[in-house]
Amino acid sequence: MHSLTGIGVSPGVVVGPIYKIEKVVINQPVTASPREIYAALTAVAEDLDYRALNAELEIAREVLQAQAMIAQDPALVEAIGARFPDDIQYPDVRSGVTDAFSGFRRALESLGGYFAERVSDLDEICERTLAYLAGIDAPTIVLSTPSIVIAEDLTPADTAALDLNFA
Question: Hey, which residues does 151 pair with through a beta bridge?
Fold first, then answer.
């Protein structure tokens, strides 16, 4: 028998299957051109918009829509363009994409409060963009019975994808 501790996000007690959502770690180089990076940001934004339309909770819809807007922010596109100025295939874009997001990350952290809480949204968009470029699909869990979902950090997109009647 295993014992797990953490922060519960649903009321009540449940006995059921355990689903673990693991963070995708990309250890191999990610080759891409600036156009492919912009296309990945667009795909991530479209996916977040789709998840927002299907989210049960209003707050989840709002967060996902905000994330979709962040992914298409002209300033972010400009920051990426500054790091990848040539229309070529770059051998590894991971650090450049991460650096582009980190400037926005520092700005939000410096504002504090609600804005500092949105830093995790930037991290999620960055991770989803790199995963898209690497050809890695975001894991999806479909719940059909009362279940226990565990994650180191359950992102808004992960939460919105869950049927909260079973989580």
Answer: 21
